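Researcher: Next entry in the queue.
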Amino acid sequence: MISGPALSSNANFVLSLLCIALIPFVALGLALINTGLGRSRSAAHTMLSSLCVLAVAAIAYMVFGFASQGTIGGAAHILVIHGNGWNWIAAQPLFLRGLTYGDGPSIVACMQLLTVGLAALIPLGSGSDRWRLGAICASTALFAAITYPIFAHWAWGGGWLQQLVNFRMGFGFIDCAGSGTIHVAGGLTALSIAWIIGPRRGKFSHDGMPAAIPGHNSVLVLVGCLLALVGWLALNCAGSMFFAGAPAFHLVLVIINTLLAAFSGLLGALITTRIRFGKPDTSLSANGWIAGLVAISASCSYVVPATAIIIGAIAGILIPFAIDNFEFRMGIDDPGGSISVHAVGGLWGLLAAGLFSRVTASGQMLAQIVGIATLIGFVFPLTYGLNWALDRVYPQRVSHDGERHGMDLHELGADAYPEFAIHTDEFIPR
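Model: Structure for this entry, 430 residues:
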């Protein structure tokens, strides 16, 4: 693992910046997907919230987050246990002070200003149609300042998960481009939000059976998938260079693996829904596409193309079952499928990195399991606790009338589609 790309030539420097410049396409894709899978009367609210999340996350990370994450080799707090030093949190100055712009750490900080926003966008899908804009911004600030940088330090900044290599656990925890650091962390936060603010009005009947509330625009969802792919190619290339030490010529493999995982994820979900429901489901197939991208991000630099197809296909197959289980068994309303796509898909990707990566050292699977246990056992309670405390101080859910009128009209004062009738309650049981 290295702290930044090898900036031995102007070409590598330009390539790094180009990859970072394309990452916002992931944000655009996720924003369109969340918008399309929500109700039409909340469309403008979701898109504006996406921009606000990116802005708040970047500023909170710049002020506080990077000081806790740092980079490999930077100043950090070391906890000594039985004579072994464990790097548990960085000790960098606030406001990005101390960076020498143009070197590896500064390029990593530049990338993280965007990736922290990507992770913070994920909960928007689970809180769609009922999550207040002010609460979204406050929750994002907590995530970007506390939750994300702590785990990112452990996984990417020279923290103790990377130090597992010293205990014969493979190369330490592997997460090339963020299956765990971005997607599982964001997905577990989405689960926290869905639990705290509760389901949409009319989603569940009195006997607990969920009602189908279809997204208002499947075209936006599918366009979002294509735009997300563009940014994902850049994200996985940047992550492979920065956190896996991949040279420029190796990025061809990263691109091939990313493409194949997306395609197989789509086909896996499409075939699964065709068998289960008699016809392919558009939204679930789109979620399979994104789940394939999420899953391959952990190991995109470490697996061969045939394995990338397997990883993506399994992710796509898992999604319909995961969404059903969250709705029918746990009573969780997740309009965008964010929990299943990002948390479940990301956890599978981390496991797949241990199962299929070309890392020859023994113990790699154990390192991945330790990382997964840390996400579930530490990151989830932390992000849930922070949002629970926020909800006590500043209620996160919109009022009953606000949800009935729509987030656009209630919070923004105007609809996204003013010329259409969008305030019917046809999906809400009486």
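Model: The radius of gyration is 21 Å.
Researcher: Noted, moving on.
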